[in-house]
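Expect chain and fold; thus:
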Amino acid sequence: MSSAEVNGVAGGIHRFVVFGDICGSGTLDIAGKELHRAAMYAAFDEAYGSVGVEPGTFHQEDRGDGILAALRPDVPPTLMVGRWIDTLYESLRAHNTGRSRRLRLRIGMNAGLVAQDRHGLVGRAVDLAARLCDSAPAKQIMAESPEVDLLVVVSDWLYGNVVAEGGRYVEPAHYRPARIRSKETDETAWFHVPRRTVPPLPGGEEGARTGVGPSRGDGPTPRTGGGDRTYHVGGDLLDVHGNTFHGDFTGIRKSTGAGTAAAAAAGAGEPE
């Protein structure tokens, strides 16, 4: 019987979803993989404990070099984007001190309708959390910024409805947006590196959000800004009307003014 059936809600219940992945696990031998897995689980457990989420009160699946988790609906999402992230970062820092092969994690976060059966979790909210974690910009950030041990990528819905509201340990001004395109996914995602005011997004300057399209998640359509803009993309001129970009590109830079530009990225990722 699925969790949806247990709770009497057809199609699933609204849950906070976390998808974590170890960066570069394909380069490790068996001993290295076991060490990193143990440290990852310890870091997750410490982060759960910091927000009062006790073992056995949430669903968690092993993904070999990663973790997929869905929390109970009564867990405040502000705790997850605040203290949970902060504790995970501190746990990684403590583990990595003095180590030549550090544990580095990409984390995708989303919220939405999730169904659960005896095999695991299913739902668009789960799919998007995985896409955020495995997106090309996320992999490129970790490949090009070896000093970064934790990258958090949240969905547009989660940023607009939870992160942007702020709270203890929540740093909405330290997130930056980039477009991700993978399979059926075409979304704006928000990138965050704890203790850094600006994540090292590929493709130029990071800045104010532009070019946001309709959401394909389980939340409302995201906000859009007003006015048309002109950008230079790879040396070519690109006109943006109604905040809609046409065509694929790897990065954008605003042509005039002192304002910052949005980063929209695709491109090479690191191994696994």
Summary: Residues 13-192 form a domain with the Alpha-Beta Plaits fold (CATH 3.30.70.1230). The first strand starts at residue 13 and ends at 22. Residues 1 and 117 are 6 Å apart (CA to CA). The two ends are 34 Å apart (CA to CA).
